[in-house]
Amino acid sequence: MLPEMTDEQRAAALERAGLARRTRAEIKALLQTGSLTFSDVLDRAAEDDLVAGTRAKAIIQSMPGMGKITTIRLMEEIGIAENRTLRGLTPRQTKELLDRFS
Fold first, then answer.
1. Contact 71, 79 (CB under 8 A)
2. Ordered DSSP codes for 37-86
3. Is 60 in contact with 66 (CB distance < 8 Å)?
4. SS3 per-residue string spanning 17-32
5. Does the model's pTM come out above 0.85?
6. DSSP assignment, residue 35?
7. What are the CA-CA distances from residue 2 to residues 5, 33, 81, 95 (Å)?
């Protein structure tokens, strides 16, 4: 059962959720245009929990030249679970992605 929330708590939660969605959408859009690199995203993830909580699949798929199938194949090749976040990537997985997108 969900905990009871006051109207103020509910409004604050909605605001935080909206901010998270906008931040993630902005990062994906910047990746698609090439204005942001994968390395830049990892740097942001180290400082920002909203970015760190973004699914790796969404970020990889936003890279130029990466579609759904290519993303799935790359993730399988590297051994990244489909639900893994940037925060949850191992150092080896991070290095392989950096090598791929550098």
1. no
2. -HHHHHHHHHH-HHHHTSBHHHHHHHSTT--HHHHHHHHHHHT--TT-BG
3. yes
4. HHHHHHHHHHHHHHHH
5. yes
6. S
7. 9, 40, 29, 40
Residue type, 12: A
At 6 the three-state DSSP class reads coil
For residue 3, the one-letter residue type is P
Q: What CATH number corresponds to the domain at position 92? A: 1.10.8.50
- Number of domains present in the structure of the chain: 1
Q: Quick: pLDDT tens for 17-50.
A: 999 999 999 999 999 999 999 999 999 999 999 9
Domain coverage including residue 27: 7-101
Identify whether 1 is part of a domain.
no
